[in-house]
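Support request from a user on the community tier.

User writes: "When I paste my structure tokens into the form, the page sometimes reloads and wipes my input. The last time it worked, I copied everything first. Here is what I submitted, just in case something in the input itself triggers the reload:"
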């Protein structure tokens, strides 16, 4: 099923047919694959779950935008404006004057701000409005400069023993320690041993905190977001800690079993509420835990996770709770 953004693009196939196309941004469907019969198609995405699904495309790149070349760049606007600014600026810094770009996104995700974002670099024109989306045409007149160093943020949360966290735009816990993660960390008072997996690691705070307190553990951190992977890697390095950080769609690229699987799992997909990733995390964790191993996660109290945990593990405990969050524990 096509996303609403792709449905808008289908109204303008004349702008795509016969052109070399590069897709980027928050693409979530197979619309790029559908263009192969008429166009040369490439794609770059910072979301590993999508790249994993789009592996049938002949030219797919996961990670921060690399060198690319196409007659038309098709960019899907995401919900995080700072991530969009980061990615679009990077993409355009690799392009030449005259590059044509189509930007499509939902109004509720703030796509209207593309006009002010790109105005310093060329002419922006809205060419369609449908499905509560906007479609914009942009021609690059002044190539922006891009410096990765300028986008890094660093902060040291109180009560975390001087741990320094590094993050790029769009990463969860990018500028401050969120209340849910803080509650989860407050439950980690006793020693942790063996192999530990931090799923959806974001800026790396959970795994780094555990490794700092328990240096002998074998730490693996995973995320689908390229900026999160880069952030967690730098957080470990800057704090003198060792761990493996991998791109994985929940357990898709995770090897072996663990003594502890821990997570503050996301429940949004773009601007929509989505539980699919956490459902898979809960349903599949037991198979990735040693006997007696533990799954521990924090979530908004209203989310339907206790029933999911009970079905997967039989018994679930609430270790801590606040007015907004609960920390759950279940044993294999």
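"...and here is what came back when it finally went through:"
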């Amino acid at each position: 099923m096509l996303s609403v953004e792709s449905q808008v693009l289908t109204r303008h196939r004349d702008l795509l047919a016969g052109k070399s196309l590069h897709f980027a941004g928050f693409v979530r469907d197979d619309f790029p694959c559908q263009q192969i019969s008429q166009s040369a198609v490439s794609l770059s995405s910072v979301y590993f779950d999508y790249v994993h699904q789009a592996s049938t495309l002949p030219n797919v790149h996961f990670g921060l935008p690399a060198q690319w070349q196409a007659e038309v760049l098709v960019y899907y606007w995401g919900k995080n404006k700072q991530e969009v600014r980061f990615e679009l600026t990077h993409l355009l810094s690799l392009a030449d004057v005259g590059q044509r770009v189509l930007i499509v996104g939902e109004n509720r995700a703030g796509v209207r701000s593309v006009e002010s974002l790109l105005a310093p670099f060329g002419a922006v024109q809205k060419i369609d409005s449908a499905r509560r989306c906007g479609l914009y045409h942009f021609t690059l007149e002044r190539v922006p400069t891009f410096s990765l160093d300028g986008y890094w943020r660093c902060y040291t949360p109180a009560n975390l023993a001087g741990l320094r966290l590094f993050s790029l735009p769009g990463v969860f816990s990018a500028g401050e320690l969120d209340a849910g993660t803080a509650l989860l960390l407050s439950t980690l008072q006793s020693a942790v041993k063996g192999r530990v997996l931090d799923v959806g690691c974001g800026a790396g705070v959970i795994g780094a905190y555990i490794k700092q307190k328990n240096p002998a553990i074998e730490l693996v951190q995973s995320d689908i977001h390229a900026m999160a992977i880069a952030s967690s890697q730098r957080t470990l390095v800057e704090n003198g800690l060792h761990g493996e950080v991998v791109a994985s769609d929940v357990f898709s690229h995770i090897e072996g079993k663990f003594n502890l699987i821990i997570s503050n799992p996301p429940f949004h997909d773009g601007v929509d509420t989505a539980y699919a990733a956490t459902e898979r995390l809960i349903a599949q964790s037991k198979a990735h835990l040693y006997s007696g191993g533990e799954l521990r996660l924090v979530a908004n109290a209203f989310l339907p996770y206790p029933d999911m945990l009970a079905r997967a593990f039989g018994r679930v405990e609430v270790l801590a709770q606040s007015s907004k969050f609960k920390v759950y524990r279940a044993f294999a």
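Agent notes: The reload is a front-end session timeout and is unrelated to the input. Residues 172 and 310 are 27 Å apart (CA to CA). The longest helix spans residues 81-93. Escalated to web team.
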